[in-house]
Amino acid sequence: MQISKEKKLEILRSLLLSRRFEEALTELCKIQGKIPGMMILCTGQEAVGAGVCAALQPNDAIITNHRSHSHLLAKGADPKSLMAEIFGKRTGCNRGKSGTLHLAVPEINAPCTTTVVGGGPPIAVGRAFAQQYRKEKTVTVCFIGDGAANEGSFHEALNLASVWSLPVIFVCENNLYAGAQRYEEHTKVKHIADRAAGYAMPGMVVDGNDALEVYASAREARVRAVAGEGPTLIEYKTYRWRGHGENDLQLYQPTEEIAAWQASCPIPKLRSDMLAQKLISAEELREMESRIDAVVQDAVRFAEESPYPEPREALEDVFA
Question: Which of 105, 108, 140, 307 is the most exposed place for a label (fewest CB within 10 A)?
Fold first, then answer.
């Protein structure tokens, strides 16, 4: 598949923004009392969000999970609004009511972030049914982890999506761990995508650290869905460098395993390929990285200077 220079630049920019955004959160989490709640990051697996969302149109929807920052930023969420919400501030995208684990950004068609393992697929099926019923040429993407693929809701959602030929793409980010439990300990099949055959839908296994392969596969699945050919299950093989949360000491992850996956980081791969192909110069790359760093610094400053909600606001903005 031919991928334009502009699309490659978009994906690279998205990768760099997601990484820098979460690097800032990593440092902020070291300051006691700075950010409320559990912090769950996707460092190392940003290529999935960047590549998939680059294949979508603005009116397409995403249903995501607890590891959502990359998905939301790639779909177009405002970094300042997102950071403020993570801080629990009034200026956040959910007025400080959701924090990092229950984010919703309706203006980019990201209506739901669920921390219920396997909670996303049935919601995605409902959204896709509405798109089909309205005869919209749009799709819904549902991001899940490998652990969620063992929930009954996952199988029920795939079955119904297949029966009704719904325009939904199930994206499984297989980062080898469900919490602290390694993939081989909770799943017998070699690939989650093998389960697609049981629901008469295509199943794809893709290198989740190759952002351009991610984009190409998601684009292919979108074309099928919009054409009325039904759902697709895509499994992206990737890895999370950090623990399940920032309070996780990662005692169950071998250090050599982490190092090996860090060596296949998706950012240097795309960056070096684009430099070699002269799609971007070293100076332009430095400028891009500098602008992204400034965007993240501005987002942190905005969040820190924003006020917390007043207690009386607890019952406001609860219903749409």
Answer: 307
> What would the two tokens of residue 15 be?
């990768």
- Do residues 15 and 42 make contact, with C-beta atoms less than 8 angstroms apart? no
Q: Domain locations in the chain?
A: 5-303
| Cβ-based neighbours of 205, under 8 Å, separated by 6 or more | 191, 193, 235, 237
- The model's pLDDT over 186-206, given as tens digits with 9 standing for 90+, comes to 999 999 999 999 999 999 999
Q: Is 302 helix (H, G, I), strand (E, B) or coil?
A: helix
Q: Closest by alpha carbon to 79, among 90, 91, 61, 67?
A: 91
Q: What is the value of pTM for the model shown?
A: 0.96
| Per-residue pLDDT tens over the stretch 127-172 | 999 999 999 999 999 999 999 999 999 999 999 999 999 999 999 9
Asked if CATH classification 3.90.1150.10 holds for the domain at 5-303, the reply, yes or no, is no
Q: Among all chains, which residue has been given the structure tokens 């995605």? A: 124
Pairing relationship of beta strands 140-145 and 168-174 according to DSSP bridges: parallel
Identify the three-state secondary structure at position 315.
Answer: helix
